[in-house]
């Protein structure tokens, strides 16, 4: 029963993001959450297309729930694969993504190869669609003709709220250097920094204040009674303010990256190796 699925896994098609659609018929690569995968397993469709593959890099519990939905709804023809990616990493952990993601990348590469004469969805997902699946998507683009800057452009254009953990982001920079012998993303490229790293910048307030007002989060109206004066809320307020500054800087950095994309006229396609 859907009510007893682990981690609140109720099917929902809203929120899946299309990363790439071929000019002719073929595989449409999408990134989403476990709830998006549950919806695909229930209906056999997502983003207006039939689903041919579901690649799971989220929790094994959610993978099992999705596998059960595929059987329950008669969609065993959808190829469903699971690959482990950790959502709990030490901030200083170093990852070799060429090794860590090799099997998942091979599966994803195979899934998007041309087959048939109709559009079909290859859904790549983790639990929330914010960390693990975006990391795999960025790695996939690196292996298919994009440098890391172009990969971020493609991903953030479709899904601006993703936020891979710092070890994954460093691993992507290392992977780019190994594949292309150069780096295109640097320390000052704030679109490529985790929100916690932005919050730790000593000049984050100054950076945020330099951003146009349109990039600042809208203040939340609070109609509730004020807290008692005896309650010290300074730490909570400071953390919230710093997060707001970091979010502003991130939004502005992404907008600047999208402007580069428009100016460069990057083609809407993937060069498969």
Automatic annotation (TrEMBL):
For this protein, the record's Gene3D superfamilies field holds: Protein tyrosine phosphatase superfamily
* CDD domains reported for this sequence: DSP (cd14498)
Extract the SUPFAM superfamilies matched here: (Phosphotyrosine protein) phosphatases II
- Organism annotation: Durusdinium trenchii
Pfam families linked: DSPc (PF00782)
Every copy of the Tyrosine specific protein phosphatases domain together lies at 99-162
So which domain of life are we looking at?
Eukaryota
Q: What's the protein name?
A: Sugar phosphate/phosphate translocator
